[in-house]
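Query structure, 894 tokens:
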């Protein structure tokens, strides 16, 4: 028996079918070991020893693999054909060696670029050993990411509380976004004018020409600076007569782009399909693992993590056959197109992303695919086939025109597609339009022909700031700079969103104040580690490791020696030093100049105070230097009109109670508050809806928010009230424990009873649909009176009672389950999940005249037991919270 290890269970199932008897295919479910999310997992003082950890789920799977390997003839490691796949195979082998189950077992490594029967069976005939250099490159990257994350992030926490984490690649990507925002803010629009004319030939054929020369000088963009200049030129043109100086027509060709790499696929899917990088990779993963076709699961595309643009000769031959059959011989070039990879490290430059079978047209598989899968498969298929199609043939014409009696030169350009070539199938999306392309056909004219002037159109323009990055343009820029690796861009960009360093506005990255603060801190105190050249140079060294040209521990020693010096210097900084530097660096953003020329840092709440950056438990804010006498605070940025509107401010008084109404900023953002009328009363508070800006809040809006939650009415069926309120996930209506979301926050103030009942009913219907079809009604629960049912679930039939779901044994008949059996399963499930106590309380309430004494007794005893119980629970929770926060420090491996 031969044991084969792959990464996913779906892949294991498919490959088991391909290989048949004599093979047992098991899944590792991705990585089986990782560095624990705590300090000390990489030990630089012990020659960068790495302590790997196996979680409970992975341990179970490794035990299954170890059991299968005992007595096996061969262990075939068939994980993905990239650095991470090589690392997973190494981890599995390391664990099995420690378990001492590999005696007399032959070990082989095989890779296949597609999950098809031909690719898998052919790979099995070409085994190799593990690639040591690729594993070393993985270890180096993993150690670097860990050391940067777990060393730099605590410095951030201590010197800049509220910051989440820093990372080797994530911080540089964040700097790109923040630098672009600085460019936009520093941008000042500049006016310029252009002059176009509508010309006519002798046969009245019309075309457009633009002014390019004046008084013997070629005009640059800003040579016509204002309307006065433009009008003077307009008058001169109207007073002139024009003729053709020269006509030049020449052929041009446009060649197709190569097939997709990971990076170009992410860019095109963003432009054409609106997919994020992570969504693209998730859908591509499912296409790679395959769908069922003719009773057999087949991978539809090749492996989707690659820097290579080359494709296999058989795929090229297949593409040429498809082109000839689908588009005709005219679209087939004389010779196949051969693309070569630009990747610096050939070991990681696998075949490009392409369909596994180009004869499988998108229309043939559309019915078997989900919508996202269908769209992405079509994109990959079109790009691959187009890459082997004939070039586009163009005719570009330029007509130079001059005035007969004045030094004025005009030019008309046109571009006409003579043969559409690969454009018949595919045109690459662009973030910015390309100048001078497809300008239209120009009329036939000859040198010396006289032309008529129809209109002169001076047009005003203003320069525009550089656009914010989309996922496509940011991925492209990172790749151009050599930052990180395309296979990890999706996780890097997702980390920036998860840390709340950035958010998306119209599919473009906008840095949060938190992100700008972190970037400013790193740029000023850890300059080299967010420099683009330094990060790119480090990537080149890592590539040398995977090419076998550099020892991975030598790389780590060199990096760590300089890094520790910089960290030590930063730790010696006082927080006041850090804030003084950031006050200076971020002044244009945090303290913008005022229109009246007054001091932008003068406190608006007191006479002689100055505002500056402060740090608190939950992050940075702006506060007054006269604290605690002056308690003025605000968030980092000011309102759109430049006024200090985003901090704590009094909005007015409640006309009914005369209590002060204020806008304040708390841990979770801005909120409104009505002051208490007595010392014992708690202040009434309400958060702001997601789309409401703190700067827009006035007294009227605050009073409306403070009416929440409000009673909508009484439900006619249950006799219980329905309320409308604003919660963590937005506006909602509540009835008898059921929450239903509202789309518009304005509905909170005017929603009626009928509408609320309808919204709640829709929520219940959706919940019922998710819960699955009712197979059998068993009756009511004797304690709660709620129904007990057998339902059809995603993973098989189960028993449902209230919020408890209990799995039924697979061997039994779900239709034969009795109420007693179901109650036993529910009770067992509730005991495991800790739901049994509430059921006992409900029973106590129903126990007639003894209910009150029971309550009193229960109230007294737990009162004395609660404190010790709380003490016992607190330490148990702390390690979990530490583990969670620590887990967020390190950036995913690149």
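Result returned for the query:
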């Amino acid at each position: 028996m031969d044991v084969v290890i792959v990464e996913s269970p779906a892949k294991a199932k498919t490959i088991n079918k391909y290989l048949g008897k004599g093979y047992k295919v098991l899944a590792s479910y991705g990585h089986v070991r990782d560095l624990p999310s705590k300090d000390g997992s990489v030990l630089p003082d012990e020659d960068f020893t790495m302590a790997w950890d196996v979680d409970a789920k992975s341990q179970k799977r490794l035990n299954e693999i170890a059991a299968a390997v005992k007595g096996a003839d061969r262990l075939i490691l068939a994980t993905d054909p990239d650095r991470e796949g090589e690392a997973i195979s190494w981890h599995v082998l390391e664990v099995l060696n420690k378990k001492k189950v590999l005696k007399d077992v032959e070990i082989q490594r095989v890779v296949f670029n597609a999950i098809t029967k031909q690719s898998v069976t052919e790979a099995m005939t070409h085994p190799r050993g593990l690639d040591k250099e690729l594993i070393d490159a993985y270890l180096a990257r993993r150690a670097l990411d860990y050391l940067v994350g777990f060393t730099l992030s605590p410095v951030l926490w201590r010197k800049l509380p509220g910051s989440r984490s820093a990372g080797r690649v994530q911080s540089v990507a964040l700097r790109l976004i923040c630098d672009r925002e600085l460019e936009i803010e520093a941008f000042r629009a500049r006016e310029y004018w252009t002059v176009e004319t509508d010309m006519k030939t002798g046969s009245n054929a019309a075309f457009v020409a633009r002014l390019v020369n004046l008084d013997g000088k070629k005009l640059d963009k800003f040579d016509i600076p204002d309307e006065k200049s433009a009008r003077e030129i307009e008058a001169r043109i109207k007073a002139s007569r024009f003729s053709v100086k020269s006509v030049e027509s020449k052929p041009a060709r446009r060649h197709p782009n190569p097939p997709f790499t990971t990076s170009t696929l992410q860019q095109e899917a963003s432009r054409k399909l609106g997919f994020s990088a992570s969504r693209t990779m998730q859908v591509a993963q499912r296409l790679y693992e395959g769908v069922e076709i003719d009773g057999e699961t087949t991978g539809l595309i090749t492996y989707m993590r690659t820097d290579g643009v080359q494709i296999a000769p058989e795929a090229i031959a297949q593409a040429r056959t498809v082109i000839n059959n689908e588009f005709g011989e005219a679209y087939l070039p004389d010779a196949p197109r051969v693309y070569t990879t630009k990747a610096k490290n050939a070991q990681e430059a696998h075949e490009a992303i392409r369909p596994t079978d180009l004869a499988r047209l998108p229309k043939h598989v559309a019915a078997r695919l989900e919508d996202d899968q269908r769209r992405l498969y079509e994109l990959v298929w079109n790009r691959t086939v187009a890459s082997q199609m004939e070039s586009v043939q163009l005719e570009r014409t330029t007509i130079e025109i001059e005035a007969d009696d004045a030094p004025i030169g005009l030019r008309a350009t046109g571009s006409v597609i003579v043969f559409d070539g690969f454009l018949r199938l595919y045109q690459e999306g662009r973030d910015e339009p390309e100048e001078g392309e497809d300008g239209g056909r120009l009329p036939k004219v000859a040198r010396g022909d006289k032309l008529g002037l129809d209109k002169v159109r001076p047009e005003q323009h203003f320069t525009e700031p550089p656009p914010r990055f989309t996922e496509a343009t940011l991925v492209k820029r990172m790749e151009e700079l050599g930052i990180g690796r395309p296979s990890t861009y999706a996780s890097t960009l997702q980390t920036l969103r998860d840390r709340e360093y950035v958010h998306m506005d119209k599919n473009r990255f906008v840095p949060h104040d938190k992100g700008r603060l972190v970037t400013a801190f790193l740029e000023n105190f850890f300059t080299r580690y967010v420099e683009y050249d330094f990060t790119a140079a480090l990537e080149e060294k890592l590539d040398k490791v995977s090419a076998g040209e550099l020892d991975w521990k030598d790389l780590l020693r060199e990096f760590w020696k300089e890094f520790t010096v910089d960290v030590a210097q930063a730790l010696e900084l006082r927080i006041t030093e850090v804030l003084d530097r950031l006050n200076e660096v971020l002044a244009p953003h945090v303290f913008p100049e005022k229109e009246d020329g007054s001091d932008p840092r003068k406190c608006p709440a007191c006479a002689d105070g100055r505002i500056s950056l402060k740090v608190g438990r939950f992050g940075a804010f702006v506060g007054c230097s006269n604290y605690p006498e002056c308690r003025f605070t605000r968030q980092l940025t000011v309102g759109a009109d430049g006024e200090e509107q985003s901090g704590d401010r009094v909005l007015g008084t409640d006309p009914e109670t005369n209590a002060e109404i204020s806008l304040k900023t708390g841990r979770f953002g801005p909120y409104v508050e009505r002051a208490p009328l007595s010392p014992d009363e708690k202040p009434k508070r309400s958060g702001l809806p997601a789309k409401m800006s703190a700067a827009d809040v006035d007294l009227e809006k605050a009073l409306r928010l403070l009416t929440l939650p409000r009673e909508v009415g009484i439900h006619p069926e249950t006799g219980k009230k329905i309320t409308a309120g604003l919660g963590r996930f937005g506006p909602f209506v509540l009835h008898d424990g059921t929450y239903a979301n509202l789309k518009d926050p304005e509905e909170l103030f005017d929603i009626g009873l009928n509408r609320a009942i309808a919204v709640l009913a829709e929520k219940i219907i959706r919940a019922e649909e998710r819960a699955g079809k009712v197979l059998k009604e068993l009756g009511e629960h004797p304690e709660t009176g709620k129904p007990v049912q057998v339902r059809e679930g995603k993973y098989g039939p189960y028993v449902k009672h209230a919020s408890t779901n209990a799995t039924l044994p697979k061997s039994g008949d779900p239709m034969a389950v009795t109420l007693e059996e179901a109650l036993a399963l529910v009770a067992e499930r509730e005991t495991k999940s800790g739901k049994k106590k509430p059921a006992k309380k409900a029973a106590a309430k129903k126990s007639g005249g003894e209910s009150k004494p029971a309550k009193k007794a229960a109230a007294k005893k737990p009162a004395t037991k609660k404190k010790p119980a709380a003490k016992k629970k607190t330490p148990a929770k702390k390690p979990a919270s530490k583990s969670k926060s620590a887990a967020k420090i390190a950036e995913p491996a690149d």
